[in-house]
């Protein structure tokens, strides 16, 4: 089973439970890759947005700190989860991502120990699936804590904006996990989806989330210019990332890739074999 805990700080403040039925608290990924999914949502009177790193959002949803969260897909099939996917908006790719990468000082086939970004859940599972499928090799997964000497690491997995802002010059070989998945399966990959507990009444929320995604995709170049520099991104690179590298719609092919990933994760005993994906 996978358990990689974030090393980040305190939990967000919990909003008051005295809310109208059509008001929703959304847990949102704090990286650049999520910005097109939330275009205009912060100005909607019935929505409250709380930003966090991906690994913290499942716990916030589980503890009712938020009603809906953009959660790593691997968390949908962990034990005792009864969550449903509530929108066709997602964070995905159809090839290289740029921001889900393993850096190593040995060829991929020779990696044995992988230090992993504590902000990630899905990418850790994806790395294990790829290495077992491609190389027949399980990985020794070690959290990349602040106390770890990065100079001594054989391989490091980073996700999100840190791929741009954190330099690892001693690790010269890069493996993009989105590209590796596409080469292995021919399918797109989905990293995160909007999810809620199965009994949540959704009302107009799926429509709002879809409309926000559509607006964000249309305006992705402007979002990259406005938001990218504050997160450490050069503007042109941020534009290419949001407009060419990422995919934000859960298409039939993306669902196929998601199902294939869950199947392989079960096969390699990374998630329980009894859990299934649920779509609203």
Question: Could you please describe the fold and organization of this structure?
Answer:
The protein is built from 8 helices and 11 strands. The chain is α/β, with parallel strands linked by helices and 280 residues long. It folds into 2 domains: 133 residues, Periplasmic binding protein-like II (D-Maltodextrin-Binding Protein, domain 2, 3-Layer(aba) Sandwich), CATH 3.40.190.10; 86 residues, D-Maltodextrin-Binding Protein, domain 2, CATH 3.40.190.10. The chain has a 6-stranded mixed sheet with strand order 2-1-3-10-4-11. A 5-stranded mixed sheet has the order 7-6-8-5-9. Helix 2 links the parallel strand 6 and strand 7.
Order of helices and strands: EEHEEEEHEEHEHEHHHEH
Rounded mean pLDDT score: 91
Radius of gyration: 18 Å
The main sheet orders its strands as 2-1-3-10-4-11
Shape: globular
Q: Would you tell me the structural class of the helices and strands?
A: alpha/beta
Distance between the termini: 26 Å
Could you give a short description of this structure?
This protein is an alpha/beta fold. The protein has helices spanning 57-62, 122-135, 162-165, 177-185, 205-218, 220-227, 235-245, 252-267, and strands at 24-29, 47-52, 68-72, 83-93, 100-104, 113-116, 140-143, 155-159, 173-176, 189-197, 246-249.
Label this structure with key terms.
D-Maltodextrin-Binding Protein, domain 2, 5-stranded mixed β-sheet, single chain, 6-stranded mixed β-sheet, disordered N terminus, 2 domains, about 280 residues, alpha/beta, 11 strands
